[in-house]
Design brief:
Largest sheet of chain A: 8 strands, parallel, barrel
Mean pLDDT of chain A: 95
Structural class of chain A: alpha/beta
Low-confidence stretches of chain A: none
CATH architecture of chain A: Alpha-Beta Barrel
Radius of gyration of chain A: 19 Å
Order of helices and strands of chain A: HEHHEHHEHEHEHEEHEHEHEHHH
Largest interface: A-B, 59 and 59 residues
Number of domains of chain A: 1
Number of helices of chain A: 14
Oligomer: homodimer
């Protein structure tokens, strides 16, 4: 089954396009986890990696019944060295064992056979045993050119996996290169066209192809424009929550059925105990804070986007 | 000491800007290493990782007396999962222990605190103990915008490390986005300007700053143009050898002293036994083939670029 079909089946089963980003940060981790990890000994990197793994696994326990997709951020695991990378591998595997789809956020990209190596490393698609980091999908950077996307596309098609190409990112300075006027259109528009064309080649009669695009909620007008420009392209929308994007800002990313997009929240969910409306739970109840923040995000998206259609579809 | 000063001291000491890329590929590895690694048992990934590590360490033994800088390609290690990433860490450390500078070719890039995590993970600069993957420098992708380069710049300045920003890559399709005309210049020219400006902010009175640029030998005219546009920016030039670039194609990347650039060869050196003029050594003498290919590259660069000045400077 192609990635978009698997993705949409999972979203419809859970009734929400909410995506939880797994971005473990040592300085924000509940003290309970740090202490426990330190007790087992080892280097500081091994301790961090152990704490990150437990943190992520316990997050999965809280959210797996309601959330379809998670997105571990590779950087935070690499920051603990090989021990952290081993924790990443285990977290991906645990998420898949719970029936979740996993988008590994590595923003990889390279040329030719090097891109093939990254694709082999991360894209397992429908068979978790087919890649060491058994993700369903991987985020990919397009700067090197479409020829460097092709090895990822080929592997994704082969394994039922997907990629999400950076098109219009959520950070304040993302327009510096992405928004430059270039030969009658903006650079991000041209990248978006290239991605959509890849899907039209792959999609046959499917509504969506396996090549997604990252488009930030922090630029809602451009999100709507890209949704129209890329009708066969699934979107990954970062920037909701802590980065300032609202559910209304994400609305233009969805189709009438509530499909075609997933909306990421990382800190706003996993560190909900630290600030904002769920801080009242306190550090000892960090999992309850995650639970409440997850429910609130699902409800918020359902109330202000066509994702509300998913809920009624699910009840039917 | 700033990265460019450390880099140039190392290049002057060895008398060559030749850079050896460590890109281990299982299907091209000498059978001797595969067999030995398999004998020790474990999963296929563990066997690959073990063979990659020995391959790279033995390459280092052959080249360390003549080469100043090596560039391990992260993708080929990640392709073996956490075991491969552990091998990458060990190879980087071994190279540094032999006095080599290490550019980790990870082409990383992300926003804000995520970029900080990558910088912490890879950039050790002058103190190998200050990062888990103890590289002197890291390759970085600019598509997300200059605000996302800043955490790498800050860490590089702090630790005496460097980054190499992708500007004009060596692959056939690199012009697709990089060469687009945008507001009176090409995209790669704009990225180059941004990089040069970062160096002018950092360089004080130094000739070169810590923020390098990747510019392919496969586009020699653009290499010369970028050398002129970026007088404070050290260049990393891929595309020599197997990808078709010649020493003459790299000449425009150097200053009159033979500094300001390093030229990468990966397959042409490390798999010299497999094809080309050093294939006569045969698989059993793969290290002798590497030895001969290394000497030939050094001589070729000295004969056709100002890198010849380094040799005479060294003898003086």
């Amino acid at each position: 089954m192609n990635f978009a079909d698997r993705l949409h089946a999972a979203i419809q089963a859970k009734g929400t396009p909410a995506l939880v980003g797994l971005d473990p940060r040592w300085d924000q981790l509940p003290a309970e986890l740090k202490t426990k990890a330190a007790t087992a000994g080892g280097t500081q990197f091994e301790i961090q990696a152990r704490a990150f793994e437990e943190f992520c696994l316990r997050i999965l326990d809280v959210i797996a019944d309601r959330i379809a997709v998670v997105k571990p951020q590779s950087a935070f695991f690499e920051d603990s060295g090989p021990a952290g990378v081993l924790a990443l591998q285990r977290v991906i595997r645990a998420a898949r064992d719970k029936g979740l789809l996993v988008i590994c956020d590595g923003k990889r990209g390279d040329i030719g056979s090097t891109a093939e190596a990254y694709a082999r490393a991360y894209l397992a698609g429908s068979d978790p045993d087919s890649a060491p980091f058994a993700a369903d999908a991987l985020t990919v950077n397009p700067y090197l050119g479409a020829d460097t996307l092709q090895p990822f596309v080929d592997r994704a098609v082969e394994c039922g996996g997907g990629i999400y190409v950076l098109v219009r990112t959520s950070n304040p300075g993302s327009g510096e290169f992405q928004n430059r006027e270039t030969q009658g259109q903006r650079l991000y528009q041209r990248v978006g066209e290239v991605v959509e064309t890849l899907n039209q080649t792959q999609a046959s009669n499917a509504a969506y192809g396996p090549i997604g695009a990252v488009v930030g909620a922090t630029y809602p007008e451009e999100l709507g424009e890209l949704r129209a420009l890329m009708p066969h392209t699934p979107l990954l929308i970062p920037g909701y929550g802590s980065q300032g994007g609202t559910s209304a800002d994400t609305a233009a990313g969805f189709d009438v059925q509530g499909l075609g997009a997933v909306v990421n929240s990382s800190r706003g969910i996993i560190f909900a105990y630290r600030k904002g409306q769920f801080a009242e739970f306190g550090e000892d109840s960090w999992e309850a804070a995650i639970d409440a923040a997850t429910s609130a995000m699902i409800a918020d998206l359902a109330a202000h986007t066509t994702a509300g259609q998913l809920q009624s579809g699910r009840q039917a």
